[in-house]
Design goal:
- The protein has three helices and 21 strands.
- By secondary structure, it is α+β, with helices and mostly antiparallel strands.
- The strands form three sheets. The protein has a six-stranded antiparallel β-barrel with strand order 3-12-15-14-13-16. A four-stranded antiparallel sheet has the order 4-11-9-6, with no helix packed on it.
- Helix 2 packs antiparallel against helix 3 (171-228).
Length: 419
Amino acid sequence: MDVPREPKGPGRRIAVVLTLLLLLVAVTIVLGRIEPALPVVDSDLVVMASVERGMLPLEIRGWGELKSDQYHSVESSVGGRVTKIRVEPGDVVKAGAPLVELSSPDLALEAAKAEQEFTAARAAFTALRRSIGTQRYEREASLVNLRSELTRAGRSVEKLESLFARGEVSEAELTAATDGVHAVEQQLLVEEEMLALLNETGDEQIMLEKNRLVSLAEVLHREQERLSALSVEASVEGLVDEVSTAVGDWVSPGTELVRLIRPERLRAELKVPLPGATRIRSGDVVLLVDAVGDTTDGKVRVIGEALPVKGDQYARVSVQLVKPPRADAAFDAGVDAIINIGQLDNALFVKRPAWAADDGVASVFRVDPKAKTAERVKVKFVTGSWDRIQVLDGLEEGDVIIVSDMSKYDDVDCVQLEH
């Protein structure tokens, strides 16, 4: 038997719609009360720093390169081909240090020829002195013998004269003895004249040969100097600024091979960002650091005008070096500079966040170690150094903040920290 059904009227449909609307409102309210999950940040991938209180050095950073007020050009004094270069730009060399090696077969040949001529002349000079000395010895020995012979002949004549007076010898015997004395006297006179002539001419020969030997020695010395000049050395101490030649080049006399910078005349020409550069004063102490970490000291000498570099404003700052760099310093690659302009005592400071400016307000994430979260806070910064900045308000000593870039979380006020 069929059961009669009541017809669906408009009232029931309205009731269903109202019920659905009420359910939708309830769900929306519940979902609205549920807080969204915090973004998760790996604490190992961010840089954190603690807020400290104490002495804060005020330091400004710049960069630039070393220049010199005085250059020294090392030139070749002879012609030759470059075979070896012993230095590079940036090397510090002492006076006398080898810089460049040259070769020249012509110079080597001339030096060898000069040495041969000098050696032969020295041997001839020695032989001449020996020869003249031997002749003098022989003449002098002959004179000694003749004088002895003359003495004996004179005594013989005296004895014969005594015998002749007593009639024991003939006049002919006496005359013969007297003639023998005269002959020895004549021979002695000739030998004395021969010795005097030998002394005069011998001294002239020796002097001429000696002068020739001295002249050849000067030629040899000059050729040896030219040969040694093929090894080009530094005449002064300096920093190698430029090597002007290459292996295989032929260079003429007077060609610049190496340019040196005098260490005592070095200065650093720096670019320092504005407005920090306006706080620098002449005489401020500067620490210069090269590409490999070598350091040297300087003082601010001149503060120049501002200049734009890639859209930013910088000031030129000239720094006079207090002492030359170390011998192994690598300043040719440029220098970084840390300029000390003073210090603040009992200051509240923290490592400078990349986006924090002097005398400004910035938001940072302060770490809550218990909750393992970091919450955004507003901080008033004052002055500071290139790597640290003074805190005026918003942080306390011991607080820990995130100082690395957090710009990807600009739309949240809190993040979850996890390892």
